[in-house]
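Researcher: Quick sanity check before group meeting.
Model: Go ahead. Protein one:
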Amino acid sequence: MLTTVNSPAPQFATMGSPLPTSSCGMNRVLIVYYSRSGATRALAAELAAKLGADMAAIKEPRSRIGVSGFLRSMLETVRGTLPPIEPLHVDLSAYALVLLGTPVWAGRAASPIRSFLRMTARSLPPTAYFCTYGGSGHDTAFQDMARRQGQRPLATLAVRRRELPPERHADALEAFLMRMAPARQRGAPVEAARHHRAHQE
């Protein structure tokens, strides 16, 4: 089981290697992401550094490297397939806020993220979404995620791959962080974050 850590550097969850336990439980933000090419991982790492958050990567038993992996990804998107993913071994209840990150595949969230939501939708604390994308489709990807989770996110951030250098999306990222501020307050209870979300809907 993973619990929060008090560290400015992002902590990573790996199979069989849980995050260290914090003595004071100050860190209440978790970033869960899937990244095929590395673009979404880069954005997740930037957010983790800004928030002092923990990071957990969604992993799969089958590789998506190469042309065959790309084609399989597109086929799963079109068919709505939910592929198997490896367990994260994360105690979601230990966090006040979870950020979910995904690339956009054909106007939808990546299929491994959709599998994660299928498994955890009822146990997720308040969430925010972020994505990386090429041309378009981030709005429908976020809508797809919210529908699967059964609730709206506190905030969303969409960054084009060509705008991944931090200086090119700095304003959008700052606005994203500001919208999440109530849920990020130290010691803010989960119910307070839910109350904030209800007023935004």
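Researcher: Fine. The other one?
Model: Protein two, sequence then structure:
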Amino acid sequence: MPFAFAGSALAHGTGFRLVKDPRPLAVRFYYTGGDPMGFAQVRVYSPESDAIEYQNGRTDGQGIFAFCPKRPGEWTLMVADGMGHKVRAVVQVGEGLNPAQATSRQGGGTKPGWLEIVAGLSLLMNIVLISGYLKKKKG
């Protein structure tokens, strides 16, 4: 009978609560045409380490990502949309972790490389060739 309550002893519940003073920083990511980088992957690195992620996640549909820095300094956000576009943003967080005092500088945004361009052109050419083949086969 010593194991009768083992299931309840090992289980743990879940919950949530609102954080009253999170001091979040929100950053919007976008393409050069102005469209948001919606649902892009984000990795946040603290001033303490550029090798270990402090946080990761995705932008929302409007390209916005928010995080709560734990100390002042340069925070780096690496963003990738999975289609070859990448952005490196550096956010300087001031004393008191006040979002209004944060400044940013654009790192290097990237455009799709030659491999992605060749693959896209190849796909379009294949669609045209298959379409022509199917039209010829019907006629």
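Researcher: One line on it for the slide.
Model: The beta strands are 25-28, 41-45, 55-58, 64-67, 73-80, 86-93, 103-106.
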